[in-house]
Structure formats: structure tokens, C-alpha cells
Specification:
Blueprint (H helix, E strand, L loop, with lengths): L7 H26 L6 H13 L2 E2 H8 L3 H13 L3 E6 L2 E9 L1 H22 L4 H27 L4 H4 L3
Antiparallel strand pairs: 1-3, 2-3
Length: 165
């Protein structure tokens, strides 16, 4: 009988296959949906600011998995583009927060609209069976993302206990 954790060999096969598919999907969407001149790193940072609210540059760097000087350059560029602005942190007047501007919100809305349009078009070309299989995979993919995010921010979790359904 197979445990909830699967077998090491099958887990490795699935990891290889899933990694390859996700990498190719990610590359396809990046090309299909990002506005001219916007990098994936910029889009990710904008989404983090939308989802998590205003951030210190050091916190944004940690969330984005980049070094603080890299993030400072990223914020400077996005500020020059009108996508973000810096403001004093009201809780700690010594600190500076980075937040989205209305232009940043519009850019993210355009990316979201483009992603939905592209995915909707290609999903329409699939069979009902393929679409159903994708829909059934979403809860597992979301749990996989949650586990990954937890491990990035709190150390590696016990995968066996965290993936219970």
C-alpha cells in the first residue's frame, strides 16, 4: 500500500515532469502577457506589493528572493516608470515604504486581463477531459505553492504533515 507521501521514485518522476511543464508554461505566459519592456521580476514585485501591501525594500527583497541592492535598483526603475512610490512609514518614521501607484495597479490589471485572455483562448482548444484534469490539479498545485512559500519564510516544513487533504 502506498503512503500519502508517495514513493521516492514516483515523487522524483513527478518532480521532473511537473518542473518541466511549469517552466514551459511560465515562459509561455511571460512572453504572452507582460507589457513591452516589463520584466518578470518587476511584475512579480508589483504583484507582491498589491497582495502584501506596502513594503520596506529589504522586506520586498526577501519576498522576491533577490538581494537588497538588486531590489533597490528594481524599485528605483519602477519608481521612474511611475509604477511605485516611496513614502515614510508612519509606524517608524525612520523607515521608507514602497507602495503601488495607480499606474502600478493599472499595469497589474492589464497583466491579469492578458493572462485570462490567453489562458481562456487556449483552454477553449482543449477537450473537456483535459480541462477537468487541470481543474482537479489546482488544489494540489495550490498546496504545493503554500508549502514552498512556508519553507521560504520559516524553514522547511514537514511535508508529510503539511499536505494532508
Amino acid at each position: 500500500m502506498q503512503s500519502a507521501r508517495g514513493t521516492p521514485g514516483r515523487n522524483r518522476e513527478l518532480a521532473v515532469e511537473l518542473g518541466s511543464v511549469l517552466t514551459r508554461l511560465y515562459a509561455f505566459l511571460r512572453v504572452a502577457i507582460l507589457p513591452e519592456g516589463m520584466t518578470l521580476t518587476q511584475a512579480s514585485a508589483l504583484a507582491t506589493l498589491r497582495d502584501k501591501g506596502p513594503q520596506r525594500v529589504t522586506d520586498l527583497a526577501t519576498r522576491e528572493g533577490v538581494r537588497q541592492p538588486t531590489c533597490t535598483g528594481l524599485v528605483n526603475f519602477m519608481e521612474d516608470q511611475g509604477l511605485v512610490r516611496r513614502r515614510v512609514d508612519e509606524a517608524d518614521r525612520r523607515a521608507v515604504m514602497v507602495e503601488l501607484t495607480e499606474e502600478g495597479h493599472r499595469a497589474l490589471a492589464a497583466i491579469t486581463d492578458a493572462r485570462v485572455e490567453v489562458l481562456e483562448r487556449y483552454l477553449g482548444a482543449l477537450t473537456d477531459r483535459d480541462r477537468d484534469a487541470l481543474a482537479l490539479s489546482l488544489p494540489g498545485l495550490l498546496r504545493l505553492i503554500e508549502l514552498g512559500n512556508r519553507s521560504l519564510h520559516r524553514g522547511t516544513p514537514d511535508a508529510g504533515s503539511a499536505v494532508k487533504t
